[in-house]
Model the fold of this input.
Amino acid sequence: MKKVCIFLGLVLWFGLPGCSQRESTRYEIRGLGEGTTYSIVYFNDRPSVTSREIDSIIAAFDASCSIYNPNSLLTRLNENRTDSVDGNIADCIALARQVSLQGDGLYDITIKPLIDAWKSYSAGESERPDIDSLVRIVGFDKISVQDNRLIKQDPRMQIDLNSIAKGYSVDLIAAYLKRQGITRFVVEVGGEVVASGRREDDALWRIGIDKPKEGNFFPGKFLQDVLLLEDAAMATSGNYRQFYMVEGKERINHIISPKTGENSQNTMLSATVIAPSCAEADAYATLFMVSGIEKAREILSRNPHLGAYLIYADGDEDRAFITPDVAERIKK
Done:
């Protein structure tokens, strides 16, 4: 079996299966969903999962949490057509609140009105947003779930789960595989990954991180490093392909701050997080992109269950902050 690489932000290197005493076969499932692609590789004594089952999981999740589906439950909640939440949305809101508290509000799933306003302005479709009025309807502490009902302090509030939903969907698929008795697998949706057990040759799963360099428009062409994973989730957030230069040297990214409603500027280029769940890794990777390197390091010091590989610009040089546990995962 030849080596397979999936170039979707994170690069999954499945490698060549070697000889093993265990009678197990390598199976692959690939498809489209959530506006991206997905890939699953698992080892088992029989083909226990089909693409139809995975597509069904993704379709059900899209009907729940997508902001692009006009009939999804989340869209109906945002438009006040209902106040009932399902388990997916309730779980995402609860986890998002924990991350928001750790990040002092720099991570906030109620930022959708600000994002929409800035997108409209950038496209020339509207005047500059009235930031003061929009900030008043943004705030993770202004929503809650009570008795399976979403409570908003202001009916104009809207939720965007894009920074956590993809990771959560990976967790759902991983949980389904385990219920089918599959323990050695890797699930990847749009670059977010859960790795369980080891490959057939007892080697760890290998996941590559793109190098955040100008002109690196093809995921997988230039790799920063390759990490080895077993029984862990991993997510990467980055916008290093969109930045501007200060005095021809310093690269600065534009990111909307949920606190001020304005573009916050920091030098973070890429944030890779390893966590027990992919939803948590996804959310913290987004938080670190917003917080910048110093705040990210402070948050990591308070959360030893998280690992991180953070790449940031220091003048015209790229530097990396790597937690010790992630340093041990780097393929030598």
